[in-house]
UniProtKB/TrEMBL annotation:
PANTHER family: SIALATE O-ACETYLESTERASE
Keyword RNA-binding carried by entry: no
Origin superkingdom: Bacteria
Species this chain originates from: Chitinophaga qingshengii
Protein name: Sialate O-acetylesterase
Pfam families: SASA (PF03629)
Record bears the keyword Hydrolase: yes
UniProt keyword list: Hydrolase
InterPro entries the record matches: Galactose-bd-like_sf (IPR008979), SASA (IPR005181), SGNH_hydro_sf (IPR036514), SIAE (IPR039329)
Length: 643
């Protein structure tokens, strides 16, 4: 019996010893991946200490021995673009093999919702997806996850090539960037997409860098009081939150839209309007109802309901009949056909179930964009609507832990390091709107933090400046979004950074402008000149200095190409001028060569000039390549986000 026991113990020890000796590799590696060309290729994983590990990548060979901490690292020599290859790694009694591997350029695409925004929800989605057969463009989409501590691995994602079955779910900006790079450079392109909508730059930065800044130190230390259970509960609340957003509660969808429902006690609101007109900030479901009389000429006809551009998620009902459900769309056209059988003579009821999220909700102006029509006659939907916030179960409060410092870096960036990359493309800043002045430090801090951790030197970091957004204001005014753009422009002082200006691509009522093709193209222009050493103009006119003259100020620009011009052929707009009283007036602006002369009869002794300094500026200065001038100001007066 003793001999049998000892034999069993030995066999068990051998079994578990072999099991422990087995190598593992993080999930950033997989079939169909793209590895970075023309620099050493790191491949890493874990096994028991002292385990010999060997690997082959095509004809290349590398070997190492696992360290005392159980970690191992292979470095394959730099290789030119090509493939497909097989990567094979062996250690202990296990071999791991990845097939259909390409070598090309790998770009990390990160940021918040405008980088996350998928091809299927952007401009010309159906056409673009149908034509998206690009087997040498591969995406790895990192699943959204947050953590209080740095993680060693991502969840179970897979590398996928672009084709009509996959492309729709990929980042539109990253896809159009990758497609252009692939076409121009003739190389495979890999995109590692790590994004999360509505998140600030602090969430994507590592703890150590944030602790070094007085702006974020206290908030980082406050994370230490959190528990994993807090994250778990918030995740459960988030599941419940989205269940409510997508699925009407309390039988509301059957009762509230009905033409017999009594809404007389509901408060009133004038449409078109946004969330601020509903009694202050609110997050959850709001029902809206409007009774309209249809003319006799509409009898027996199918009608069209035109909603302009509703904000966020909504469902539409006519006389209790569901016309559309849970619509998310960046399209500027939201119109629906209502069959004649659903209508009646005289009074009819239009109902909307709107999810008011992230400060949005309601119907965007102009008033003439919302109506019912038979194709000839219109019945306006503008004017008085009834609304109710508590017709359904309230959505649970979400703490949005994904916005806390370092938590996305820990879970969605740290596990990717040190996967070799060509560089980063970044689109973020909206969530830092109210701390724009701090963004001057926080954004460069993220760039420095990532470069230190990747140990690849000052790799290219290319980013998108915020687009124009929100209502157009009739007079010059202060703007948080303008201050974010200024902080982004100032970040160009960091080495090997580049910025794509899209001040002409935004939409007043849509924080996710649809034209992601042009955003990707402009990023590619920057990459073409800065990374791939192409000749030509890569960005719009940039402020280079100014000179005060009697009654006017002369502004100098760089990046003018063959000269400055006006985009629409009309008068030059977007310039404001002020004297020492700091009161700005719209200015007269005239192009003279590579300069613009700015003046106003209301400012006899001008002191400062601002251009495109607004949430949604009306501006039209471009260079000979048609690229927009970057917003700027000549003054350094205290802004509204500076504490």
């Amino acid at each position: 019996m003793i001999k049998t026991f000892l034999l069993g113990l030995i066999l068990t020890s051998l079994f578990y010893g072999r099991l422990f000796a087995q190598i593992t590799m993080p999930k950033v590696f997989g079939d169909s991946m793209v590895l970075q060309r023309e620099q050493p290729i790191p491949v890493w994983g874990q096994a028991s200490p002292g385990t010999p590990v060997t690997g082959t990548l095509g004809a290349a060979y590398a070997k190492t021995v696992t360290g005392k901490d159980g970690k191992w690292m292979l470095r394959f020599p730099a290789a030119k673009a090509g493939g497909p290859y097989t990567l094979k790694v062996s250690g202990g009694n296990v071999a791991i093999e990845f097939k259909n591997v390409l070598i090309g350029d790998v770009w990390l695409a990160s940021g918040q919702s405008n980088m996350e925004w998928p091809v299927k929800d952007a401009k010309d989605a159906a056409k673009e997806i149908a034509a998206s057969n690009w087997p040498q463009i591969r995406f790895l989409v990192v699943k959204q996850r947050k953590s209080l501590t740095p993680q060693q691995d991502i969840t179970d994602e897979k590398w996928k090539a672009c084709d009509p079955a996959t492309t729709g779910n990929f980042s539109a900006v990253a896809y159009y960037f990758a497609r252009k790079v692939h076409q121009e450079q003739g190389i495979p392109v890999g995109i590692i997409q790590s994004t999360w909508g509505g998140t600030p730059v602090e969430a994507w930065t590592g703890r150590e860098g944030l602790l070094a800044s007085p702006i974020t130190r206290a908030r980082v230390l406050a994370n230490d009081t959190l528990e994993v259970a807090d994250f778990v509960q918030d995740s459960l609340n988030l599941v419940r939150f989205w269940d409510i957003i997508y699925h009407p509660q309390n039988n509301a969808a059957q009762e509230v839209p009905a033409d017999t429902f009594n809404d007389a006690a509901w408060p009133q609101v004038q449409m078109p309007a946004l969330v601020g007109d509903f009694g202050g900030p609110y997050e959850g479901i709001v029902w809206m109802r409007k009774k309209i009389g249809l003319p006799a000429s509409f009898a027996g006809k199918a009608l069209t309901v035109e909603l302009g551009h509703p904000e966020m998620n909504y469902s539409l009902y006519v006389n209790g009949h569901e016309i559309c459900k849970t619509v998310w769309s960046a399209s500027p056209f939201h119109h629906y056909t209502v069959p004649a059988a659903m209508l009646k003579s005289g009074e009819n009821v239009i109902a909307l179930r709107i999810a008011m999220l992230w400060g949005g909700g309601g119907l965007n102006p102009p008033a003439d964009s919302i109506y019912v029509t038979d194709g000839t006659t219109r019945v306006s939907l503008a004017g008085t609507w009834r609304y109710q916030k508590d017709a359904e179960t309230p959505a649970p409060h979400i703490r949005n832990y994904q916005c806390y410092p370092a938590v996305l870096y820990n879970a969605m960036i740290h596990p990717l390091i040190p996967y070799a990359i060509k560089g980063v493309i970044w689109y973020q800043g909206e969530a830092n709107e109210y701390a724009a002045f701090d963004y001057r430090q926080l954004f460069p801090g993220l760039i420095k933090d990532w470069r230190i951790r990747w140990t690849q030197g000052n790799f290219p970091f290319l980013y998108v400046q915020l687009a124009n957004f929100k209502k157009i204001k009739p007079e010059p005014s202060e703007s948080e979004w303008a201050e974010v753009r200024e902080a982004q422009a100032m970040t160009l002082s960091q080495p090997n950074t580049g910025m794509a200006c899209i001040i002409d691509l935004g939409e007043a009522g849509n924080i996710h402008p649809a034209n992601k093709q042009e955003v990707g193209r402009r990023l590619t222009l920057v990459a073409g000149k800065q990374v791939y050493h192409r000749q030509g103009i890569a960005s719009g006119p940039a402020f280079a200095g100014f000179k005060k003259e009697p009654h006017r100020i002369r502004i100098r620009f760089t990046n003018t190409g063959a000269g400055l011009t006006v985009r629409d052929g009309h008068a030059l707009t977007g310039f404001a001028i002020a004297g020492e009283d700091k009161r700005f007036y719209w200015a007269n602006a005239v192009i003279e060569g590579n300069e613009v002369v700015v003046s106003s009869e209301q400012v006899l002794t001008p002191t400062a000039v601002r251009y495109a300094w607004a949430d949604n500026p009306v501006c039209n200065l471009v260079n000979s390549a048609g690229l927009p001038a970057i917003p700027f100001r000549t003054d350094s007066w205290k802004g509204i986000t500076q504490r």
